[in-house]
């Protein structure tokens, strides 16, 4: 790779960390090359390259961030390119850091919102990396809620900045999206006092975007959500608030950030979604909301299942279970066990998948009317449980059971959950295909394809395409030709 002209000052920070890690120059180069391969990069560094870095030469592109990640994995603490005396250029790991303080967490997530709001197309092309799941989930599991999140008048006037983070930009003069604004204000700048009404507005906005996502897909209003986070939520996080208000503020910010990740996941921006999930996890820790942190981990597990990383999905679900303990409401327990079951299903582990589903079913049966259930878990009901069973039985090729549960889910699921109903209909179609019921399978899939055409959801389209791949052995059959004609007519 082309490198910048050598500097005269030796890099003592890098030399000290090499010594601490016990690396040879060749060993460090080899690890950087291996990490680069995880991101599709053919770097080909060697011991001579490391010697040049030690003399003060700066590697270009993503390499500084890769070198920092090598040391992070080796030493067990988060290190940045600046910690190594290197320039932070195009860091592939930006956004995967699990911040050490609430102030640093705001800096990291704020930077992510601003980059995404600026329509940086390359940000949505960043690849998902299974290795990026390890440190955040571990740090969340062993970490504790921050002792203090309050920000007083003095700290509001001079925001605390982490050493490597950019300063927050001034708030815009006009709202960028048509969503609820705070009463009595035209614009909000860093340092203003956060009120309970502000937090209620954040919650209301979350419900609005959740409804749009469920009905029309993540691509419908994702960019508006990100702009809202940048222009409304970040100034609040940099405002003035006491402990109780601060915890509620961080909880609301975590929920909106997870939703931004969820909508990014739905449009197949998987690396970006992963970064949003990690930052939502850190914000949940600042909120002191252990249960919501477990929900973020479940969301990360869902993405891992979708991308075929079953082992990582199981591990994330188990970390969530361990982190929340046995004191969570039965509905939350059921949700966590289903996440584990889905991972086992992808791996084809029949016994482990079945055991997790049984635990989920028993947990939901233990729920009682009047139980206090977090707002984010209220979607998990009999319809959702049946949906989880249907997916797992389809993945395990237990098609008769998959049909039974998918049909039950469709009977129970409200129309407002349009995308979830589409997914379930495709699961039902795939199961009927597995039973040899070609006509019914194609009819169901054609309905789903029509719905997918009306949504802005890559996942919806991919569900239909997965069914079509299963159709290949029957491609000359009349029902399949009819199905393809219907889909072609939809455009």
Account of the 3D structure:
The chain is globular and about 75 Å long. It folds into three domains: about 10-85; about 100-285, no CATH class; about 290-380. It has about 500 residues and is an all-alpha fold. The protein has helices at about 10-20, 25-40, 45-55, 65-75, 100-115, 135-140, 155, 195-215, 220-235, 245-265, 270-285, 290-305, 310-325, 330-345, 350-365, 380-395, 400-410, 420-435, 440-455, 460-470, 480-490. This is Regulatory protein. It comes from Streptomyces phaeofaciens.
Quick overview:
63% of the residues lie in helices and 0% in strands.
What descriptive keywords fit this protein?
0% strand, 491 residues, mainly alpha, globular
**Number of H- or I-type helical stretches:** 21
Spans of at least 5 consecutive residues with low confidence:
153-186
Mean pLDDT: 88
**Rg over CA atoms:** 24 Å
Number of strands: 0
Shape: globular
| Beta-strand percent range | under 5%
Count of spatially separate domains: 3
Intertermini distance: 44 Å
Q: Supply the helix-strand structural class.
A: mainly alpha
Largest sheet properties: none
Order of helices and strands: HHHHHHHHHHHHHHHHHHHHH
What proportion of the residues is helical, as a percent range? 55-70%
Describe the SSE topology.
Elements: H1 12-21, H2 25-38, H3 47-54, H4 63-75, H5 102-117, H6 134-142, H7 153-157, H8 196-216, H9 222-237, H10 243-266, H11 270-287, H12 290-306, H13 310-324, H14 330-347, H15 350-365, H16 382-395, H17 399-412, H18 418-434, H19 438-453, H20 458-470, H21 478-490
Helix pairs in contact: 2-3, 2-4, 5-9, 5-11, 6-13, 8-9, 8-10, 9-10, 10-11, 10-12, 11-12, 12-13, 12-14, 13-14, 14-15, 14-16, 15-16, 16-17, 16-18, 17-18, 18-19, 18-20, 19-20, 19-21
